[in-house]
Amino acid sequence: MTAIDIALEPDATMIQHARDANARLLKDFPKGFALDATHHPHISLLQQFVRTDDLDKVYAAANAVLAKEKPTAWALKAFKYYYIRATPVGLAGIVVEPTEDLHRLQDELISDVKTLHREDGNPAAFFSEDGGRDIQKSLISYVANFVTDAAGKRFNPHVTIGVGMQTYLNKMLAEPFPSFTFSAAGASVYQLGTFGTARKELMALTLTP
Asked: Is the pTM of this model over 0.90?
């Protein structure tokens, strides 16, 4: 079993904003994670468990959907910070306006990949350098129930920026957030790691220019 994330990869503008915010979080909370070669900034479109033997089917289905879309031409807007509470820390991100294009792309991916969905995932399905001990129970549940809990009206497109203490994150959220626009520069299927990070690129997908 593999825990996958089909995701858009942002352009240099978003990556710089995400890394700047990540540096702030690490300065206040060094135990967090850095955005690096194995923690890729991304916008999750679909997370789910699939049989490892079915990964080629996932890649084919995702590429077929993306062949009908042109994400690199979309003007996406980042407009605020947010975080998911995991007392006393929080998992923070930059929130992206959920456009009709993003909703349509997510809906198409869910429709074409849902037949490969499995609910019986476990820590072994994730990328881990700690024998799965760093994989949160809440993450396993989140991936298993992504379509009902994080899609459609509950879709919250965002780029994760790291982990921080909630007291510091509350200060960040209280600051004015200068909105900015960016676009997608790529798309990939990743194997998920702790905190839902995109740890291992399994396949780079093809985007239509």
From this structure: yes
